[in-house]
Structure to design on (394 residues):
């Protein structure tokens, strides 16, 4: 009898959620997982996590939400919960006595598992969810719920190939629900970084390099330092981008630093994947730290670092950008045409101007409050398109 059937038989006694948003979002989350599990099975993907049911999704969200509002020794809990049995986890730490999946147990355990990459394991038996231990390794498509801050939860799952950031499915903040829209009208015009964050990059191919998007890692790093920042991604075969930069550049690089570029080329030869991932993370963090310096960090599309602390100025060949289109990859949201100054401060306005001038470039902008925007030129709309992607980076 497979895990999905066992789960279905056991879950019938799970109590109804008292957090109404858990009930409201569960069907959309269930549809997301059904779709991706079906695709994985059609592609004969092995070692998949158990598929969560609507009842399990509701119950985990419900308990986690109420736990997020508690405090342990003055600290709010930050927890990552993974739905799988202990035998499917890699090198798990297993409790001698399983613990009921209750709010008070999550609050008590939170200080021990708040470091990134550690998950509290949840499984079900005789209709009751329980905590069995912790793990750092989980299988593909494993349902994960992260408690980010009081009242803020993110539903996500591990990528099939296990590389890169988890794929976000939905966020819940109090009674506000946002479900990621995987299929939108502007899908063909999305920059590659957004497709990667949505989980569209080569899940089922044998080429691991295809599923690594360094810009995703860089976006996560620049958002994490909390100081705000901007990255300009320019073509490697032209210097036209310099027309939109005020000279002299504060911190130019004498010759293009190729640390990130070299690492992205090494994956096919690197036998120790974990070592390679750690090296890439360190290189990304090094470049990500530069984005905290006032001004923009400039890299080319080969991921070579060209400069940081660069001040953006309008090109002498161009005019001022006066409108952009703004979208968010959320079901039910609609596009709006706005003046770029209404989106944020000088950093957003200058990034929009840069992409308006340099239409083969992309600009990534992180705000101090956690908002993250990708600016790219849209030929169909004939204007700069601002993709607000906070929901994909939590």
């Amino acid at each position: 009898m497979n895990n999905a059937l066992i789960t279905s038989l056991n879950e019938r006694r799970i109590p109804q959620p008292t957090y109404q948003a858990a009930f409201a979002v569960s069907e959309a989350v269930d549809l997301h997982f059904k779709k991706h599990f079906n695709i994985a099975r059609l592609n004969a993907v092995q070692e998949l996590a158990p598929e969560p049911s609507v009842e399990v999704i509701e119950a985990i969200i419900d308990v986690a939400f109420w736990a997020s509002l508690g405090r342990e020794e003055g600290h709010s809990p930050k927890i990552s919960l993974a739905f799988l049995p202990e035998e499917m986890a890699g090198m798990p730490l297993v409790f001698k006595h399983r613990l009921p999946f209750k709010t008070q147990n999550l609050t008590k355990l939170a200080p021990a598992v708040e470091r990134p990459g550690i998950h509290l394991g949840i499984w079900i038996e005789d209709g009751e969810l329980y905590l069995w231990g912790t793990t750092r390794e989980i299988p593909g498509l494993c349902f994960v719920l992260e408690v980010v801050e009081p009242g803020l939860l993110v539903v996500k799952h591990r990528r099939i190939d296990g590389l890169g950031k988890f794929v976000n499915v939905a966020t819940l903040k109090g009674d506000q629900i946002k479900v990621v829209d995987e299929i939108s009208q502007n899908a063909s015009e999305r920059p590659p970084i957004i497709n990667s964050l949505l989980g569209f990059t080569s899940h089922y191919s044998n080429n691991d390099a295809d599923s690594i998007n360094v810009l995703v890692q860089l976006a996560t790093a620049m958002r994490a330092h909390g100081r705000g920042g901007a990255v300009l991604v320019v073509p490697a075969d032209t210097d036209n981008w310099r027309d939109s930069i005020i000279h002299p550049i504060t911190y130019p690089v004498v010759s293009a630093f190729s640390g990130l570029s070299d690492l992205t080329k090494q994956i096919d030869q690197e036998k120790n994947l974990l070592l390679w991932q750690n090296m890439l993370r360190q290189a990304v963090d090094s470049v990500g730290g530069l984005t905290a310096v006032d001004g923009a960090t400039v890299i080319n599309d080969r991921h070579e670092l060209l400069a940081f602390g660069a001040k953006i100025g309008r090109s002498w060949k161009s005019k001022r950008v006066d409108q952009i289109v703004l979208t968010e990859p959320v079901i039910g949201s609609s596009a709006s045409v706005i003046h770029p100054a209404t989106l944020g401060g000088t950093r957003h306005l200058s990034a929009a101007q840069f992409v308006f001038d340099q239409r083969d470039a992309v600009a990534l902008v992180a705000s101090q409050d956690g908002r993250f925007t990708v600016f790219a030129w849209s030929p169909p709309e004939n204007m700069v398109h601002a993709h607000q992607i906070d929901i994909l980076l939590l």
Observations:
- The chain has a mean pLDDT of 85.
- The first strand starts at residue 79 and ends at 83.
- The first helix runs from residue 3 to 10.
- The chain has two domains: 3-179, 198-393.
